[in-house]
Amino acid sequence: MNYESTSIAGDRQMLTGPDGTKRSRHRAVIVGIVVILLVAIGAFWAFGRKGGDAPAAKAPPAGAAAGALPKVTVVVPGRDTVTRTVTGTGSLAARREMPVGVVGEGGLVTQVLVEPGSWVGAGQVLATVDRSVQAQTAESLAAQVRVARADAQIAQTELDRSKQLVERGFVSQADIDRKTATRDAANARVSVAQAQLAETQARNRRLDIRAPAAGLVLTRAVEPGQVIGGGSGVLFRIAMGGQMEMRAQLSEADLATVRAGVPAEVVPVGDTRVFKGQVWQVSPIIDPQTRQGIARIALNYDPALRPGGFASARIGAGASTAPLLPESAVLSDDKGSYVYVIDAQDKAVRRDVKVAEVSDEGALIASGLMGDERVVASAGAFLNPGQQVVPVRAAATPARKE
């Protein structure tokens, strides 16, 4: 009992300060809890009112909301008939090049009558070859023809005289037959001599180098004083009729779309002029190494079209009807090409498309659009799918010239 009283007295003294005030631990704990509760209630009240008022604060006037939305330019592409073009590069050449060499025996060249760039006619002499020996041979054969004709005339005269005497009985029929045979042999010798003379004259004419057809002389590889023969090779190259062509190298896929007769435009390197022509032949084979083929474009003669030169070509590959968009309207990422279409709620919607061709006129859409959609013409890269916008219709553009 005394022990308990002593303990209680000691506890009271510990909870009481020197000035007699009580320092109760329980009271301090209670006060702390009350303060925390008050702070929590105040915070809840403050944030709760702020959250409740937020919708009213975020709801701006109708005019202010419209002004905050981005404006975008839209186009309605429709469906246009566009001529698809294929581009390629290649070299210029004569459409029909005629190599001219030695036809006859050859000999010493005495004169060259044409230069590269000269226009010549069919059969015109390009170069002459010395024929002094051949001329003497021709004279000898001509003399033999005259001798044979004289012999044939004597044989004919004797036959006529014998026919007059046979009626009188002075000449037998056997003599007439012999003289007839002699006359026929003499006439045959005349024919042989004439054939030999004609052959020699023909050989002499072949000594001259002549143009096989009318055209433009491209190259010359012979000079006066040069000895030429059958192994001399090509002496002249002639473009028949002066016709030129471009041999455009095209990929296997592009070549499959090109047909003979389609129009083409050719621009030689170093020249800004455009020369119009048409494809006259499409290569039936593909080079297995380069996977390319040749489209041959016929061109009219012009001094700027020099065989061996380089040129670029645009070839028509048929017409197609499809939507045509400005090139700026088509975007691309790792998923492919796409555009932004504005729906009925004026929200941007991504639309995947397939581009058939990109040209100076724009991007031709092969699939993905019907043509009546409102498509963002530019600045589509700054939009997000589902974003609200203010569409502005683009000004009408002048009709394209076909």
TrEMBL record:
It comes from the Bacteria. SUPFAM superfamilies: HlyD-like secretion proteins. InterPro entries: Beta-barrel_RND_2, BSH_CzcB-like, RND_pump_MFP, YknX-like_C. Residues 106-233 form the CzcB-like barrel-sandwich hybrid domain. The chain crosses the membrane at residues 28-48. Residues 1-21 are annotated as: Disordered. Residues 247-317 form the CusB-like beta-barrel domain. Residues 325-389 form the YknX-like C-terminal permuted SH3-like domain. The keyword Cell wall biogenesis/degradation does not apply. This is Efflux transporter periplasmic adaptor subunit.
